[in-house]
Protein 1
Amino acid sequence: MERLKYLFFDLDMTLLRDDKSISDEALAYLRDLKKRKDVRYGIATGRAWTAIEPLIERFGLDTLFDVIVMDNGSEIYDLAEGRRERLGIIQTEQMKQLLDAFGGYDFLAVAFHNPKGFFTTKISYRTERVLINNRLSGYHDPYKEEFEATARVMLLFLIEDQERVLEAVRLHPVPGIHGMLSEPEVYDFLCEGVSKAEGIRHYVTANGDRIEQTVVFGDSENDLEMIQKCGVSVSMKNGTEAVRAAADYVTGYTNNEDGVFRFLKEHEDWFQEG
């Protein structure tokens, strides 16, 4: 095994409990481990910055984490350097193709946010959650207002409609775009070649290291590529069947049971003393 120097965590259903909190015990442990070991911490999430910032403020994560790979790898925020870098963006013409392909379905909303605000084809329970989580003030209609290129386009739906959404996705491929479930009720479209794994690779390579020197924790389909490509991969006990099968390890506890830090306590010897 190569020397392991990085720890990357997904947020929802991994580091965060279902109520979107992190236990005081887990935070204290992660801070202590970082003091004792030569390791950098990263977040690898499907969330945009507007949905991450409230967590940063609430839990003081800017003093714990070194980097955030966000929007499923579309953007990297190097907290230590105060630098943000875009790795991929969906152009407006591709966004229009996605709107044409999926805007007519009554069981989903096509949605995205960019500097002009939050755009959605429908208002629903799911779009309300996005609005609240991102602290956005209102809706814009992509059929009536101009919009800019964006890192990610989402399909938002109810979990009972997931199979219908996946079938619609199979029927309407868009050139230069790929996608995956990031949550049971969210399907994300990204630029081809963009992923959490490639975002992680970009960051560690820029720091003179290799992706094989990373440990990653995840639970969902949008974590699958980093689970497969990073050095040591850990699925949460509550992870999907595909993620659990692909991972090197599976935690003995769920995200609601502090599965991440309880697993790390048993594997501290992976990291050199600081």
Note: The longest strand covers residues 177-183.
Protein 2
Amino acid sequence: YHGNFNAVQFEDWLRKLCTTLARTHGPCIIHLDGAKYHKRQLNPQPTTKWLKADIQTWLMQRRIRFTSTAVKAVLLEITKAHREPAHYACVQIAAEYDHRVLYTPPYHPELQPIEIIWAVAKNRIAVDLAETMDELGQKIAASFSRVTSNTWVKALRKAQGCEDFYMAMADGEALAEDDAVEGDQDGPQLDELVGEEEQ
């Protein structure tokens, strides 16, 4: 689905979400992963793909000195010395509504409750495989319609437990062996989340 979705579409949806959140809940924190469409940069840094003239324009806009005879490689070195912090469209959109965006670290799906929900839905479908694309579409819709708010809360708590574990590690706190995320028996396991929906 990532190939059929882009930053413009996501930002349009995000603006609608921010409007709704501001109206119903006030300022919120919005967590996003590092998907490309979540991180459209408003101030892109020049790369080797840029034309020399575009790199020169980038430098001139920032009043950075360079010689007119400098080759592209030299210009790129100059831009590296003047690297700017990234400014993302999603962060700007959220800020317009007094919301704040936080990005989860890469390669940590356990911090994304939606990944747990996807797993719940996919596990249900895997039990009874579809034979046609139409049937698959129906099974996907049926599987997601059976995800309850209780399952969402459990998925959120599971992700928060992982977050707490990582924060404790970052803070240098001593953790008891039974606090390890890998063997986390306090949070709901995937089979528990799936089983609960069957009732």
Note: Helices lie at 7-24, 52-61, 72-81, 89-96, 113-127, 133-145, 149-170, 190-197.
Protein 3
Amino acid sequence: MRLSTKNILTFTRTLFTAARFIVLVFFIFAANLNAQNNEVFTLTADALQDGKSVELNKLTWKYHAGDDAAWANPQFDDSSWDKLEETVIKPEAIPKSGWNGRAWFRLYVQIDESLADKNFAFIMVQRGASEIYLDGKKLVTFGAVTDTEISEYNPSRLPIPFRFEGAGEHLIAVRFASETLADMSVGIASWLANGGIYPSFSLAIRNADDLNGIISQYAFTSSMRVGFLFIGFLLALALLHFLLYIFYRVERGNLFYSIYAFSFAILLVCGNLMVHGHQPILPSIIAGMINSTMLAVEFVALLAFVHVVFARPLGKLFWILTAAWAVSSVLNCIFLNKTSNFRILTNVLIGLSFTFCILILVKALREKRPGAWILMVGVQLLSFGMFSILLNQFGVLDLPENFLIFGQFALILAVPIAVSVFLARNFARTNRDLKTQLAQVEELSLQKIEQERQSAELRAENERRAKELEGARALQLSMLPNKLPQIPYLEIAAYMKPATEVGGDYYDFHVGDDGTLTVAVGDATGHGLKAGTVVTATKGLFNNLAPAPDIPDTFKQISRSLKLMNLRGLFMAMTMLKIKDNRFSISAAGMPSTLIYRHATGEIEEINLRAVPLGSFAAIEYKKQEYTLSNNDCVVLMSDGFTEMFNESGEMLGDGEANKTLKESAQLSPQEIINRFVKVGEDWAGKRPPDDDVTFVVLKVKSNNAF
């Protein structure tokens, strides 16, 4: 059968339509399959009511070891990633993609209209460093996660405000890294992992409609000022009673009480660091080990104190409890986070120690020992505060916050106050010494108040000066050209960065009626407001004198005007260049060499015109030189802030580096050339702040000129 041309065309169209349909169905199927692979958590308003938070770390996350910035992109296909039921990487359950110290976690969250564009906050605790992304945008960085560095930082529940922009599906991505726990099979990381310390983070989300209130609450709860007040109080008592023991060693109660107060103070320091500190993993672990040890020392010292003040011998029960506390401390230091069974032992020892103390005090009360009731009240308040906090932590009791605060105060202050009162009643001389020291403390407090008043006055004065300098800086920046001139045969770029709030560098342009471009780069002596005054005056003089064709004559007039202003030791170094077509003339007054890159030869040519800065002498002759440029030639004018830049070792950059930088970057655009110079300067200076202003003006002849 013969097929006509019309039939063939009809068949071809039908086949093409069918193919398009098949491709469309394939992509729809693939998209649906990808959506099904992504487990989406639906966030509801009910879950966030009454200040509740949702613990995202307990949801199913997508996980992949390694590090790639593209993994923050919501469009990235993570269907092949591992799934983790929690954001913890355990050595016995390493995901398929592995763990090498860096990994990404991704979680899809569905948001309805009622939660869109409202304030929320992330609450995070971590063992490592991280970056949090929402829909591909970085929200916050905790620590440092770069290609070459991992700097660990624990945010300790610092609230991070954000918004879900619109309803629908959103992606939360966490770039996580841990240098300490990168390889949990060897070294310290192995010990930590065996102790239950794994690379992990907890991430919760909560409503943040009252953002200021949340931040204020965090600032209050995480502040260590009150804790350090108690710590200082305890350390003072420890030192006082230790000195009393040194001068009167018969009274061993002072020794044991000083040990008790000191260990309690260190316990509070470590506790504050563990709960509110931002330190890396190892310091936190060390703080926990010290905390466990100090808890044992505290109770042993308290038992010894109660024994000796009532003349009781340190019997077998005391030494048994001491040995048990030592074992508990060692177990906690070895097994770290895997101490759930050992914590029961610790709590039992706390109960036994309190019971032992109370039995001794009851016997002392029966014997009518003076002051025994004071210590009984202190120990009872201490036990009451500790047990109320423990019962609340284990969920046995749901105590109100005010009650817990009272429990904390009782926990910290009960025994120290009771012992102080007890010793004051028994030692009149100690009481007199305490009064003397309290007077000294009061005097120091008054001195501190006076110092704080003076500091406040200094801060106010500094703020006033800072505002003045900022205003002067804004004025100086406003004097720089708003835009660069457009010259048909040139590419132009300029850059100026002051070393202080008001710098002494300056650049300006003027285009004459005949098309001549005048470029000026100046550097006033000094910095600050005085240098800004010279720049302001020079700006006005340049605007009036720039059209004049002769640069040396212009320099003489500017120099004469600055001299007549009687600015007392303030001068303006300047390079001025006039260019038209491929020819330019140039003069300099106290400025570094101007550089010319010759495209034809690839060589650097220096224009070195030595002369005193403007304003130094009223009558002085300045030199002028003329040059011819070719296509792709480049001219760089700069202040001495680049060549005289110092590094952290006090070494100067020098002219040679300027020549080298231009030679390496001359094929780039003027702006890219400036960027290269700036990068070289920053790398050279390192962390040292700039000593002088830095200014560049780069002119480059375009490649298509027919001169």
Note: The CA atoms of residues 501 and 569 lie 21 Å apart.
